[in-house]
Amino acid sequence: MLRFFVSIILAWLLYKLVFDLIIPGYRVTKQVRRQMSDMQDHMRQQYEQQNGGPKGPQPPPTPQPKNVDKGDYLDFEDVK
User: Fold this and answer.
1) Which residue has better confidence, 69 or 3?
2) DSSP 8-state symbol, 13
3) 66 against 35, higher pLDDT
4) Residue 36: HSE in the Cβ half-sphere, 13 Å Cα cutoff
5) What single-letter DSSP state applies at residue 78?
6) Which of 24, 23, 27, 45 is nearest to 35 (CA)?
7) pLDDT digits over 19-63, tens only?
8) What is the pLDDT of residue 23?
9) Whole-angstrom Cα distance, residue 6 to residue 42?
10) CB within 8 A of 37, min separation 6: which ones?
11) N or C terminus of the chain: which is more exposed, having fewer CB within 10 Å?
12) Through-space distance between the first and last CA atoms of the chain, rounded to whole angstroms
């Protein structure tokens, strides 16, 4: 008889744990993630409107040939 009451109490505690803590926590987490995603999308759209469109990956700039002006250069060993 005592074993029956203990099992009923444990089942009730397990029920309360699942339906009052785990499921609401899952729902809140899901809602917060969705809201964060929506906010990021909104901010991205706002940024694109302000800056004239999406900025995708840009090709790296081509290196410019170095123009070295050797007009006034004196070699260290030549200076006396």
Assistant:
1) 3
2) H
3) 35
4) 6
5) T
6) 27
7) 999 999 999 999 999 999 999 999 999 999 998 765 666 667 777
8) 93
9) 53
10) none
11) C
12) 111
Cβ(51)–Cβ(57) below 8 Å: no
Q: φ and ψ at 37, to 5 degrees?
A: -65, -45
Q: How far is CA 59 from the centre of its chain?
A: 24
| Tokens encoding 35 | 């809201």
> Tokens 């309360």 belong to which residue?
16
Joined together, the tokens standing for residue 10 give 């444990």
Those residues whose C-beta lies under 8 Å from the C-beta of residue 54, and which sit 6 or more positions away, are 48
Q: How many residues does the chain have?
A: 80
According to DSSP, residue 21 is labeled I
Residue type, 18: V
